[in-house]
Structure formats: C-alpha cells, structure tokens
Design goal:
Elements (H helix, E strand, L loop, with lengths): L1 H28 L10 H81 L2 H75 L7 H18 L8 H16 L9 H17 L60 E5 L16 E5 L5 E2 L35 H8 L5 H13 L13 H12 L15 H14 L10 H7 L5 H13 L3 H19 L1 H4 L3 H12 L5 H6 L1 H13 L1 H4 L2
Antiparallel strand pairs: 1-2, 2-3
Helix pairs in contact: 1-2, 3-4, 3-6, 4-5, 7-13, 8-10, 8-13, 9-10, 15-17
Length: about 600
C-alpha cells in the first residue's frame, strides 16, 4: 500500500514540476513593458492574477517539499536494508571461506594418502605376487587343456565306435533281411510243392517211381546251397524232404498244418545252424565284402496228377495258391507275431501269438488255413529270381538321385518325398527317430514295394504302423545309392568349406558348393535338411538333437569312394552336417 502511494506521489511530483516550469515560462513570456495606455484597473487585475498564481505556486511548492522529504525517508530505509543484507552476505562469505579451507585441507590429506598408496602398489612391489598368481593360472589352463584333449579323444573314439557299430548293424540287418527273404522264398516254394503233391494217389508202380523221382528232383532244387548256410544243414533238409515225400505213397497224407509246421521248424533250424563267426564284427575295407546269398530259382509247381480212386479235394481253380501261374501273384508268407487280426481264409480271430503273414501284401493267415486261402496277393510278383531289396540292378536303390528324380518327373525322388512326408505327419515325436531300427518284416516289405515302383500311402498307419521301418528304409536308400546325395566330386570342397575362420565365410563357401550341384541333388538336399531341422525342433520329445542327427546322416549323405578315407574323415563329415543344420536359415536364404 505504501509503495502504491509513493508511486502516486512521485507521479504527481513529476506533473507539478512540469507545471511550475510551464508557469515560469509563461511569466517570462509576459511582455515586461506596459503601455501608457494601460489603466490602473488593468494593472490591479494583473496584480491579483499574479498573486493568485504565486499562492498556487506556494501550495505546490509545499507539496513538493513533502514529497522530497518522503523520498529521503525511503532512501534512508533502503540504505539501511542494504547494509543489513551486505552484513549477511559478508557472514555467509566468511562461513563459506572457512568451509572451503577445510575442504582444501581434506583434499590435500586424500592426495597425500593416494600418493602413499601409489608408492606402495608400484610394479616392483606387486611383481612377485602377480608372478605367483600368473603361474597358478597358467598351470590351471594347462591342466584344463589337457583334460579337454583327453575328452576330445574320448569323444572321437566313441563317435568312431558308434559309427562303426551303426555301419555293422546296417550290414547285419541287410544280411538278416537277405537270409530271411531267401528262407521265406524257400518256405513258400516247399509249401506250395508239398501242398500240390500231398493229394496224389498212386495208380501203379510206374506212376509211383516217376512221382518219387519228380519229388526228389524238386527237393534237390530247393536244397541248392546258400552262401551263408552250412552244407550239413542243407543236406539234412533235403533228406528229410525226400523221405517225407516218398512216404506219401504208403501212408495216409498228412494235414497241411503239420506240413507247414514242419517247414517252418526246418527254417528255424537253418537259421540256427549258421556259423556265428560269419557274423563277427570286422573292420570295413575295400577288399572285405559281405557275402551275398546266391540267387535262388523260383519253383514252378507242376499240377497234381489226377487220381481215379478218390475225388480231388482241392484243385487249381479253387485254390490259386496251390496252382500258381506266371501271370498270377502268389503270397510270400513268413512267421511273425500277430495280434488283434483275423485270418483271411477262415475269418476267425487269430488267438495264437505267432502265425504267418504275407511279407508283400501283409495278409494274415493261420498256418493250417494256407491251403484253403483263395485270395491272391495284391502285389504282382514275377517268377524270375527274387530281387535284392538293398541294391538290385536297375532298381530304385541302385540309381543316382538325378536319374531317379527324372524317372519320377519331379526334382525330389518319390521315395524320399513319401518317406519324409510320412515321418513329418506322424513320426516327429517318436523317441529315437532314425536311431532305432524298424521291424525287419515291415522294412523288407516296404523296400520291395518301393523297389517295384508302387504308389504307397505311407500316411496310412494301419497299413504301415512302424514309423521306424519307414525311417530305416530312408536311411538304407541314402546308403545304397551309388553316388551319395553330396556327390563324390564335391567331397573335398565340401569338407574344406567349413574350415574357414568365420562362420560367414564358411556359409558363403557352402552356398557356392551347393549351387554347383545338380539341380535334383540340390532340391533333395534342401528337402532333407529342412526335414532334419523339423526333427531337431522336437528334440524334447524324440531325443534327437542336432549332434545326433549329424552323427547318423553325416556319414550317409557325405561319402568318399575309399572306405579308409571315409573312416578317417568321420568327424569332419559330422561337423559339416552339424554346421549346416545350425545355419540352415542362412544356407537356404
């Protein structure tokens, strides 16, 4: 409020001083000379006016004096306030100066302490302690490197043993499949022959002798030597067959069930008589080959001779199994474990755990019902020599990738595409996928069906229940083709591609190698690698991580012409496939 009044007074003071100056100028501007004509009345009036103005000037001067005194009081008050503020500032400055002096003293002390610490921690003083610590660390590093080398050697040794065992396992599986296939073929021929001759009735002595000679000739054909079967076992089988055939002219014919049971018992004896030393593990070499069984000739069963003494119970028209013809397919039965199926001949439930099933069309049947089976095999089979399932001449398993793809009219061979699609559909979560072997019977049947260029629905779990059999056929296919998926010509360049210093350069080299391959090989490689990537994505369930897949497929997809070089470079091939699976997105980008 006082400030407002001082402002108003200063304003009025300012206006008054201006008015005084203006009035003074007016007085000075008055003409000082008076004419003679001026009257006394005029002079009186002018005097009165001058007195009035003087009075007004005195009043204003009093006001101005009051304002000046008020301004002096305010100035004095302001000076006193400034002196007080200056005293406070001086006090604060003195306090800050003392504190600053104390801080400087503390900093000097800390500086001296730091200098003493630096002098105490100089290199000559700490050298001995550092050398002791360094020696201890170097010893620890040397021990760790030694342990790592031992672990690497143990791992490499285990990998080599595992690969060798897998290779021998595959070879033994192939030998087992060959032996089983040959035994099944002989069982089928012997069974058909015995079924066709057990209803023959002798008419006179000439017929008896001719029939005995015919039976003996056929059984000698059946007992032709096999590469892996001892001669004593073959002779024993031949003699028993001849004696049983000749006895049919003097006694009542036996039932078909007893005949079939005797045949299956003989097959088990043949397998049991194989020398186990022939299956002993041997190191693979270029000059040590696996003995392959010699091809056997399919027996053409002659029609049964007419009997005039008794009616013929079975004929070729009623039972095609007893009377096969070259244009009609026949079954190839093998003894196997059957559960939850019914016999195709009598339509009764199979109660026994072990009966027979056709290895081609998977048709189940009782042993005793085989002569009564009137349903032919739904897969055509020729009467020529049986073809090998692993590497037949001119078969799917003996052609290059590019040749087979061109025959299938697509970039990826049909066998690879069908197997992988089936595994992707229902096998990605199976534990031990590609590590466990499938059932030999189903694997063999699938190989034969694919070898005969059949269009199979591998998605059908009822027809092909064992997913491991499909995986085994896929691995067997990549092992059997003459030129591997990564051709022989790209072997050295492929292994050298991943020996670069940086992963980026290794990826670029692998891309260059893959782009130089034939288009069919490249498409199949991408298809297979994408499938293996999907498999390792489910490793929590199937237990097949990237390293396991590389160990299984590395030596299979990448091969060298020399087996010794293959064994030497085993770890490098595993590393290449492992690197490709880990950087698959960059490779196929």
């Amino acid at each position: 409020m006082g400030d407002h009044e001082s402002d108003s007074h200063s304003t009025s003071s300012f206006v008054s001083y201006t008015d005084v100056e203006h009035m003074t100028q007016q007085l000075m501007s008055t003409n000082p000379f008076i004419n003679d004509a001026t009257t006394v009345s005029d002079l009186k009036q002018m005097l009165v006016a001058e007195k009035a103005r003087s009075k007004e000037m005195e009043i204003k001067l009093e006001k101005y004096k009051a304002l000046a005194n008020q301004d002096n009081d305010k100035s004095t008050l302001f000076v006193e306030q400034m002196k007080k503020q200056l005293g406070l500032n001086i006090f604060y400055s003195e306090n800050m100066a003392s504190r600053l002096q104390q801080t400087c003293m503390d900093l000097r002390y800390q500086r001296e302490q730091l200098m003493r610490d630096i002098e105490d921690s100089a290199f000559p003083v700490m050298k001995n302690s550092f050398q002791i610590q360094l020696s201890s660390l170097q010893k620890d590093v040397t021990d760790a490197q030694h342990n790592i080398e031992q672990l690497n050697q143990a791992r490499d040794h285990a990998l080599e043993e595992m690969i060798l065992l897998n290779t021998k396992n595959a070879e033994l599986n192939e030998m087992n499949n060959d032996l089983t296939r040959h035994v099944a073929q002989r069982e089928k021929e012997a069974k058909a022959f015995m079924a066709s001759t057990q209803f023959i009735r002798p008419s006179h002595s000439t017929d008896t002798s001719s029939t005995s000679m015919s039976v003996t000739g056929h059984m000698e054909c059946l007992s032709s030597p096999v590469a892996t079967t001892p001669a004593s076992s073959i002779q024993r089988s031949s003699s028993s067959s001849s004696s049983s055939t000749s006895n049919t002219h003097t006694q009542q014919p036996r039932s078909s069930g007893e005949s079939s049971s005797r045949i299956f018992q003989r097959s088990r004896n043949v397998l049991a008589s194989i020398n186990p030393m022939q299956l002993h593990k041997r190191k693979p070499s270029s000059d040590s080959k696996i003995d392959k069984p010699s091809p056997i000739h399919t027996l053409t069963v002659p029609p049964p001779l007419p009997s005039h003494s008794s009616p013929q119970p079975l004929s070729a028209t009623t039972n095609p199994f007893l009377m096969p013809n070259p244009g009609q397919p026949t079954h190839t039965f093998v003894e196997t474990k059957i559960s939850s199926e019914s016999c195709s001949a009598c339509q009764k439930f199979i109660k026994r755990s072990h009966e027979v099933k056709c290895q081609v069309c998977m048709l189940p049947c009782h042993v005793k019902c085989i002569p009564n089976l009137d349903q032919p095999c739904n897969t055509p089979m020729t009467t020529d020599a049986p073809r090998m399932s692993h590497s037949p001449t001119g078969s799917v398993f003996s052609r290059d990738i590019s040749e087979q793809a061109k025959l299938d009219h697509q970039l990826v061979p049909l066998i690879v595409k069908s197997c992988i699609e089936a595994i992707d559909h229902r096998g990605l979560t199976c534990e031990g996928l590609y590590r466990k072997s499938g059932r030999a019977t189903e694997t063999r049947a699938l190989q034969q069906a694919l070898d005969q260029q059949q269009r199979l629905d591998l998605m059908d779990q009822n027809a092909w229940p064992d997913i491991h059999a499909i995986a085994s056929v896929l691995k067997s296919y990549f092992r059997s083709i003459p030129n591997p998926l990564f051709p022989f010509e790209s072997y050295d360049v492929l292994l050298d591609a991943t020996s670069q210093e940086t992963p980026e350069s290794a990826i670029q080299n692998l891309k260059a190698v893959m782009n130089s391959l034939p288009v069919e090989n490249l498409a199949t490689i991408r298809f297979v690698l994408a499938h293996l990537d999907r498999v390792q994505q489910h490793s929590d369930e199937n237990r097949m991580v990237t390293k396991n897949l590389a160990m299984l497929f590395g030596p299979t997809l990448i091969r060298h012409r020399d087996e010794h070089v293959d064994l030497t470079d085993m770890n490098r091939k595993i590393h290449v496939l492992d690197f490709m699976l880990r950087h698959l997105d960059d490779l196929i980008a």
